[in-house]
Design brief:
- The chain is an alpha/beta fold and 238 residues long.
- The protein has a single domain, classed as Rossmann fold (3-Layer(aba) Sandwich).
- Helix 4 packs parallel to helix 5.
- The longest helix has 19 residues.
- The termini are far apart.
- Bound molecules: S-adenosyl-L-homocysteine.
- This is Alpha N-terminal protein methyltransferase 1.
Amino acid sequence: MSEVEEDAPDASINHAVAIDYWNTVQPNVNGMLGGFPQVSRIDLQGSSNFYAKVRRLTGRQTGELVSHAVDCGAGIGRITAGFLAKVAQVIDIVEPVKKFTDELQADTCKDLVEKGRIDAIYNAGLESWTSTALYKYDLIWNQWCLGHLTDAQLVEYFSRCSQYLAEGGLIVVKENLSSDPNGRDLFDEEDSSVTRTEIKFRKLFEESGLDLVWSEVQRGLPKGLYAVKMFALRPKHL
Ligand code: SAH
């Protein structure tokens, strides 16, 4: 192995450490957002504006709900309840920590579950998740969870996502960006994740055969947090 690879921050990722960490976190919006619950409203509004714009740019009708979305690394379903339910009829959930999906079913997304608008709930990490659904997804939403996958796992995961995407569907990545002055990804020991640079994300999208349709910075976040960027992607072959 080359020196560069040995040094790679993602080599330190340990899934068991990450799951242990998340099991200590309260199943509420404050826990999901690392002590910045006030960010949620701005975040959800930004996502809604971004998705509406991308739908317009790609020539899709914006008024209608799409058929199926999946909330990946969903936590307690903050995004499903606050945004995805407004754009998709049925939503699947992927989240490895059971106490979060228990909360989702008991509280955050209770109404949606009762109305049959949440279909499958997968308790799995994205590195091992496989969809058993007969339908494909119009929208695969990945937010604040992809740092738990290594670079190699992420490329493999994106390739899997491409197979699960309906015609005209989109993969959205909304993640923090590394602010490292030397342009390196940053490893966080506490939750065993990496924060990637934008350059790294673009490289991994390319390696995964994804085209970048549109990207935007999330505006209005408190100073002192990482920059957050949204990327809308679709497979080159679709
Ligand atoms: N996306 C949600 C939750 C963010 S918190 C939101 O924005 O509100 C990060 C989530 O990633 C936690 O729920 C954590 O359990 C989950 N997670 C940890 N490891 C993961 C993995 N390997 N694959 C998918 N999700 C993971």
